[in-house]
What we know:
Residues 349-462 form the TraD/TraG TraM recognition site domain. By secondary structure, the chain is α/β, with parallel strands linked by helices.
Amino acid sequence: xxxxxxxxxxxxxxxxxxxxxxxxxxxxxxxxxxxxxxxxxxxxxxxxxxxxxxxxxxxxxxxxxxxxxxxxxxxxxxxxxxxxxxxxxxxxxxxxxxxxxxxxxxxxxxxxxxxxxxxxxxxxxxxxxxxxxxxxxxxxxxxxxxxxxxxxxxxxxxxxxxxxxxxxxxxxxxxxxxxxxxxxxxxxxxxxxxxxxxxxxxxxxxxxxxxxxxxxxxxxxxxxxxxxxxxxxxxxxxxxxxxxxxxxxxxxxxxxxxxxxxxxxxxxxxxxxxxxxxxxxxxxxxxxxxxxxxxxxxxxxxxxxxxxxxxxxxxxxxxxxxxxxxxxxxxxxxxxxxxxxxxxxxxxxxxxxxxxxxxxxxxxxxxxxxxxxxxxxxxxxxxxxxxxxxxxxxxxxxxxxxxxxxxxxxxxxxxxxxxxxxxxxxxxxxxxxxxxxxxxxxxxxxxxxxxxxxxxxxxxxxxxxxxxxxxxxxxxxxxxxxxxxxxxxxxxxxxxxxxxxxxxxxxxxxxxxxxxxxxxxxxxxxxxxxxxxxxxxxxxxxxxxxxxxxxxxx
Length: 554
């Protein structure tokens, strides 16, 4: 069989042109060969790439810087940008498009709080935003950020840290609009129960939680309209004898009565009803132990929780009593956030929520529905395995900006490695041999797709190094181009922290203690007065004596 390349011209005139003319035939053959070679090389250049992933470089970072400057200058409610350090400084990072949330992951000691969360809050302070901060290790964050805010012109900074002398007072019932606000009462009751560790660790169903909240919420509404509208009065009612029968005879609003009847009917047996009562009494009893605890919640609230520009509230957790305080801190933070989101004033509302997993908060709702209200969440977790499957997915989708320090968790590292995808890399191999008594060498190349960052690479990240994804780091075709960033900590940073700590101890803390509210009375007298008030509210089913709440719907 003869190997040859046959070209059949489509136009017969070409055949006549080349026939009996060797020069013309050679010229035509050369043209055909050139066309074939061009087709071969063109096919090589159009090979499909095995992977398109790549890390951000100078262009993407410059675009993020420009966008950050634009958004900070525009000061729009729904376009918030932060900066960590200043442009030109070592370790600078632009964080445009921060809404609705920034997710920061990292094991203890990896650097997420000092390197990211605190600098982001400082950037928010520099711009005069409203700030609600949860300090799990109070006063670790507060001692750095409260003096910084005061130095930047924040005039109204309040601390709610039950158990500490500097704590202001928040009466949770003040966060309910009126005795008829059944929705607010139900939300407050459910939040208290959800944040109670006993309820959560017992794997109690949502059905049981709703039933317990249906029992507690009407009592909140009844107490809201009485002489002593606080949780101590609620506790006295819950501890009353023959509570259910007395509630049936009490003169309360129709909607409160309907919810109460629903809770009683749902409980069914007396044993189940007793379980509902126990679950409602326990969290209230826990955080009403001790004078400082009682002073933090009993009586009228000592400040207005609605924030305006350049104002800040710190919710501080006493770790020695964290299990008892979680229901109180979680519920008051939730209701305070809700009321501030409803009262937007054209300035973003920054929620600094480091160690989010320690509280039960509606973070998904805030991320998904409150962006237009100015909500920006700064969320800190050790790893995503601290959350259930649904919460993990919601945080990943709800926080466009993500920063991953070493999570010290295989599954979190593997998740991000898969998420980043693959990049195309080329490899070359050389071979040597002998042919016809001569040594021969050849080189061959091969393209392959590999993970941009393997899970093992993420788990080897040293302190202060994080993988960053932010939609402002983009080019003409892609957004959220990832990159690794090294955060810096210099001697100047150390000196600034020491200075702020000194200001906290010498200036801020004494001032906060001086502003803290005094006890509204002697504790035994307060308990006696509220026990008598509970008797008046409940009445006596045998005698038919009762007194309804002021303003209650009949």
